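For the sake of transparency, this paper describes our internal protein records without simplification. Because each token names a local backbone shape, the row as a whole describes the fold. One such record is reproduced below, unchanged from the form in which we store it.
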Amino acid sequence: MTAVSKEMIPAATETDRRFMAAAIRFAMRNAGRTATNPSVATLIVRDDGAGPVVVGRGVTALGGRPHAETVALAEAGDRARGATAYVTLEPCAHHGRTPPCAEALVTAGVARVVSAAADPDPRVDGKGHAILRAAGLSVTPRVMAEEAAETMSGYLNRHRRNRPEVTLKLAVSRDGKIGIRGGGQVKITGPVADAQTHLVRARHDAILVGSGTLLEDDPRLDCRLPGLGDRSPTRIVLDPRLRTEPDRALARTAGDTPTLIATFVDADPARRAALVACGVAFLSCETDPDTGRIALPEMLEDLGAVGMSSILVEGGAETGASFLDSDLVDRLILVEGDTEVGPNGVAAPIVPSIAGQRFRPVRSYRFGPDRWFEYVRRDD
């Protein structure tokens, strides 16, 4: 491909940023529901003299097809000719079950394309823009690229690190505890923060806990926000010795919500068969020679290989510490409640007062008495 100098790239305008911001918000509609593809949005905008108007919009469909450009162009029809397309990810350049989106934009007669995040997929990575420029379209890339990348960070991480992006989320009491060992669930946060947690779940491909949390709390690990019940992610349990019993909530509901147990290959075959009968699937894992536990890097590579892009780790001090110790946490969410658990509590593996030493703070909120902190790894 021929390199394009900065002088040849048309500058973005304030109008471009306004429509791209709208496209980024629209892309969140199907976050966590587009399988191996990211949730991308496209707006087709034309100006016939009375100001710019959106004439077509699209977001990556459930399961990943059709792509956003295809949906937006179909809605715009003939009005796409001479219009500007705002796309949150570089249009694809490879042939699959459908022609490349870059070619579809050319065929539709779009005059200009404004894109946000670059696509690290080697089948795209600049090739989509090259197709557009070769056909005479004006291309302005990397408009609000950082903001767009955050909405599809799991997809980008999977291509960059060959594994899903891992978000560790912990509810931490005022005295730095996450619960009481042997005491069942301890209420640390209030209803507003809890609702936000369910929204975060809906935006991930999977939610993961350790078997200790499963046995102690018997969680459902679903999304219980009104209208978002079908957005529950795949549930993963780290259970090397297969202690999960068929009467647990996750096993009983495995027919409704995909449930995966990561275990060793020699785990109890009778219990495995009973769980399979409930609808549970299994991932056979390697053993970490240093700890005797599941080898997390290899497990994540296996999950990434089947297209999983984002995992929310919610359960257990030991599980959280394992991901932290293995340097596998890409994003961190700490929700600090106003509750004090006391000396019998289980210490959190990380708390807000020290999180900033390892992670870069990106935002914080207050939900009633609770404080919500978000971080990303410092090398991103």
The mean pLDDT is 93. The two ends are 28 Å apart (CA to CA). The chain is about 30% helix and 25% strand. The longest helix spans residues 14-27.
